[in-house]
């Protein structure tokens, strides 16, 4: 759609709205003219005003002071807060040559006492008692305080009106012909009804949204407009129609408490709408919370404080409320948050209405239909704009969720979902599509991560992806995966692994390109003083009619990489040999599940000793599997299969159960203080029922949680960090000791260690095996141990192959050691014999 057409569309939508608003404006202006003015030729009106600051003068005392009254135009009297009495003298003369019925309207339903005295036979006599302290009046007189005046042709009468209240004391006075008053009343009823209807519809709509999204924001919005409904019901008087009279009287006497509640919901809604509640560490968020809870407390306190005193405190705090609201809105605008605009716009009519209301009720603004209903109209527009803001935010949030579902949260790259959409588009366009997927994987990416700050890591990865795309584009036609991204030709399968769609299935061409690219390895990148030589592995798979889905295509390319690694190469294309390997994995997956159920796996123990005493303090249990056809299966291979096929939790449960059996056997042999270290994966920690399983199992064997160290091995990154942290803390509370395994080779980093409740840190054997020969490894291990000590963590070193390494570790204050120098992993029976031969049973007593 062109810009011209867009503008035409906007005007087409806006024109009827503007026309409707123009008509409403004219109608309201006409309604405002229904009242008789002092310069009307059909009536003669004189108005005088007197303030009784003691509020103790009797009617006779006031009559004696009539000469002290100030003659003022109608509604020009200045009033103030306090327990003060105000007297109005109104003389009305009918200039017409026929009788007429007039209605004097006293437009403030919150006035406590309104006593109307009429001059009859030379004396002022009480003719009406109005005000919200007199609930015996009919509902109309409570909602719209008024009294009738019947005048014959040329007749004149005089009224003395006494008012007093603990709240807003101004009483706007309007005089109508009776017919016009009822027209005015009908218009006001229509406005009230429309407002109540809007609030009801918005409340139901947002309740539905809350039920659907469970987002507290929508409840806060309902609370906000509901409190505004109550406040305006009290201020304008329509509350007598929608609530019981005692309840209306309660709200009327505690209007400041309602205002405090309104302030609370205003701040809370702003905080949640602008998502500051998700950033509790920010100063503005803390200030918003402090003021919000102060409003709640003051709302209760104000019930016991005289209204005019409570009002002064409230108006002072309003400055803070508006200041915080403006700060939040300005911050989000500066940050470029799209959905903040509508919300900011919604404040404009509210600010106008909020300013007009107090000015009118204190007599500092001229009374008219517009000014009287400015706050109500402002709230109507605010609610409308706020609803638009909520809809816009919901739509934007939905778009953000869709974006997050199709993009990596850290780098912003398109992910496998976007790749799947792109592949689906290619297969739908042609019956015989010709394309391939090329996977580029950074070698030992996990080892790089712990040594780079987040921004440096992102910078290097961005540069790497750009370099790969440029290199491949020189020889191949790459297909767009995410057209809205700067890196439109690429999708990230997982961190360090990237996929490219190639518009060719020519294996010879693909092999030549991969070979040329592999020959350029390594690629050097600099981050500060650190220089990184990055190698990458490349695999490709061509699309055929036998491919069922994108995941299969990606998996085949990754299998090509695994096969290439096995052959000592950096690149490879999926072929039938890989297919045979795929069949092996399928068979292993099936047989592994059978082995778990049959209990045909084996659990080995490798002892862990104290570097200071040489005593055995425990052992790590290691899983072994001897397949009837394939023989010994490396743990890395079948653990990965278990993760890929979703049976990793069953495997971990089997390991933990077997560990408990072994520990019970050791205790029967008199070895009471033996600590068993059990490997767990992120999948286990994130599994809903796993923690319950651990508890049930140790209770069944009558063991304690502190007899176990759960070593967390990271084969995948954590996506739901909140759940992961919560589960880790629960394991800690139960009593399990938590260790991070293979530090420096997985997703582990200093940030990862510091944010989770680990007790031990296990240094990977890659850094230990050459400790006495490599200065670099020695520096890394030394720094890691110092860092662990500063965080209160014990350190375990695995892969100790000789006495010299053990001595170095002791000098570096590493507490625990494990490796072939102490003992190789042993089956349980052999491990028990080893313990007996070493005669160390007494070390556990």
Automatic annotation (TrEMBL):
The UniProt keywords, alphabetically, are: Membrane, Transmembrane, Transmembrane helix
Q: Is Membrane set as a keyword in this record? A: yes
Would I find Transmembrane helix among this entry's keywords?
yes
- Which InterPro entries does the annotation name? 7TMR_DISM_rcpt_extracell_dom1, 7TMR_DISM_rcpt_extracell_dom2, Cyclic-di-GMP_PDE-like, EAL_dom, EAL_sf, Rev_trsase/Diguanyl_cyclase
Q: Which domain of life is it from?
A: Bacteria
| Residues in EAL domain copies | 585-839
UniProt cross-references to SUPFAM superfamilies, sorted A to Z = EAL domain-like
What Pfam family is a match for this entry? 7TMR-DISM_7TM
TM ranges are 189-211, 218-243, 255-275, 342-361, 373-391
**Protein name, entry field:** EAL domain-containing protein
């Amino acid at each position: 759609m062109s810009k011209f057409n867009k503008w035409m569309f906007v005007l087409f939508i806006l024109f009827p709205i503007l026309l409707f608003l123009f008509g409403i404006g004219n109608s309201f202006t006409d309604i405002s003219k229904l009242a008789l003015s002092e310069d009307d030729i059909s009536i003669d009106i004189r108005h005088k005003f007197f303030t009784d600051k003691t509020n103790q003068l009797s009617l006779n005392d006031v009559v004696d002071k009539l000469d002290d009254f100030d003659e003022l135009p109608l509604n020009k009297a200045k009033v103030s807060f306090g327990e003060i009495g105000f007297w109005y003298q109104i003389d009305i003369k009918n200039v017409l040559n026929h009788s007429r019925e007039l209605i004097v309207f006293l437009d403030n339903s919150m006035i406590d006492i309104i006593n109307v005295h009429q001059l009859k036979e030379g004396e002022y006599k009480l003719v009406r008692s109005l005000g919200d302290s007199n609930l015996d009046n009919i509902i109309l007189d409570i909602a719209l305080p008024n009294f009738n005046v019947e005048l014959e042709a040329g007749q004149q009468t005089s009224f003395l009106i006494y008012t007093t209240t603990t709240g807003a004391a101004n009483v706007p006075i309007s005089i109508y012909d009776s017919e016009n008053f009822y027209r005015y009343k009908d218009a006001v009823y229509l406005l009230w009804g429309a407002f109540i209807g809007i609030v009801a519809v918005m409340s139901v709509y947002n309740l539905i949204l809350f039920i659907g999204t469970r987002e507290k924001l929508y409840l806060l919005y309902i609370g906000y407009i509901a409190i505004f409904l109550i406040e305006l019901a009290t201020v304008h008087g329509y509350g007598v129609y929608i609530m019981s009279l005692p309840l209306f009287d309660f709200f009327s006497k505690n209007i400041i408490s309602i205002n405090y509640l309104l302030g609370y919901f205003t701040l809370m809604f702003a905080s949640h709408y602008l998502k500051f509640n998700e950033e509790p560490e920010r100063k503005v968020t803390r200030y918003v919370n402090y003021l919000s809870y102060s409003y709640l407390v003051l709302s209760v306190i104000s019930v016991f404080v005289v209204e005019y005193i409570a009002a002064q405190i409230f108006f002072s705090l309003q400055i803070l409320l508006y200041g915080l609201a403006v700060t939040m809105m300005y911050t989000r605008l500066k940050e470029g948050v799209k959905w903040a605009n509508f919300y900011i716009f919604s404040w404009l009519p509210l600010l106008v209405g909020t300013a007009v209301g107090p000015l009118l009720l204190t007599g500092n603004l001229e009374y008219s239909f517009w000014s009287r209903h400015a706050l109500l109209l402002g709230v109507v527009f605010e609610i409308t704009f706020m609803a638009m803001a909520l809809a816009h935010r919901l739509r934007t949030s939905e778009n953000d969720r869709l974006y997050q579902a199709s993009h990596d949260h850290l780098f912003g790259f398109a992910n496998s979902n976007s790749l799947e959409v792109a592949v689906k588009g290619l297969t739908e366009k042609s019956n015989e599509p010709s394309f391939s997927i090329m996977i580029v994987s950074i070698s030992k990416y996990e080892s790089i991560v712990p040594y780079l700050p987040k921004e440096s890591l992102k910078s290097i990865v961005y540069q790497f992806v750009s370099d790969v795309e440029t290199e491949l584009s020189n020889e191949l036609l790459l297909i767009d995966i995410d057209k809205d991204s700067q890196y439109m030709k690429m999708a990230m399968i997982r961190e360090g692994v990237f996929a490219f769609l190639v518009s060719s299935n020519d294996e010879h061409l693909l092999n030549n390109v991969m070979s040329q690219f592999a020959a350029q390895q390594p690629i050097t990148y600099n981050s500060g003083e650190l220089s990184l030589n990055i190698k990458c592995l490349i695999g490709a798979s061509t699309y055929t009619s036998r491919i069922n889905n994108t995941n299969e295509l990606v998996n085949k390319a990754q299998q090509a990489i695994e096969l290439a690694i096995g052959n000592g190469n950096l690149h490879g294309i999926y072929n039938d040999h890989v297919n045979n390997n795929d069949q092996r994995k399928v068979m292993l997956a099936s047989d592994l599940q059978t082995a778990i159920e049959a209990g045909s796996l084996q659990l080995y123990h490798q002892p862990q000793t104290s570097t200071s005493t040489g005593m055995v303090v425990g052992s790590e249990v290691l899983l072994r599997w001897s397949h009837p056809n394939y023989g010994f299966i490396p743990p890395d291979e079948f653990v990965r299969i278990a993760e890929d096929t979703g049976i990793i939790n069953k495997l971990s449960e089997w390991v933990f159960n077997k560990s408990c059996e072994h520990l019970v056997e050791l205790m029967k042999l008199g070895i009471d203080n033996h600590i068993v270290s059990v490997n767990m994966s992120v999948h286990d920690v994130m599994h809903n029922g796993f923690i319950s399983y651990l508890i049930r199992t140790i209770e069944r064997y009558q063991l304690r949680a502190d007899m176990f160290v759960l070593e967390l091995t990271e084969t995948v990154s954590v996506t739901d960090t909140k759940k992961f942290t919560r589960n880790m803390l629960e394991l800690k509370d139960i009593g399990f000791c938590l260790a991070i395994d293979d530090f420096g080779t997985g997703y582990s980093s200093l940030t990862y260690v510091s944010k989770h409740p680990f007790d031990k840190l296990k240094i990977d054997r890659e850094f230990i095996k050459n400790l006495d020969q490599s200065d670099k490894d020695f520096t890394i291990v030394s720094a890691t141990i110092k860092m662990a000590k500063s965080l209160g963590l014990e350190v375990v070193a695995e892969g100790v192959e000789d006495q010299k390494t053990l001595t170095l570790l002791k000098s570096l204050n590493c507490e625990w050691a494990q490796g072939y120098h102490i003992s190789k992993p042993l089956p349980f029976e052999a491990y028990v014999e080893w313990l007996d031969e070493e005669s160390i049973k007494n070390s556990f007593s």
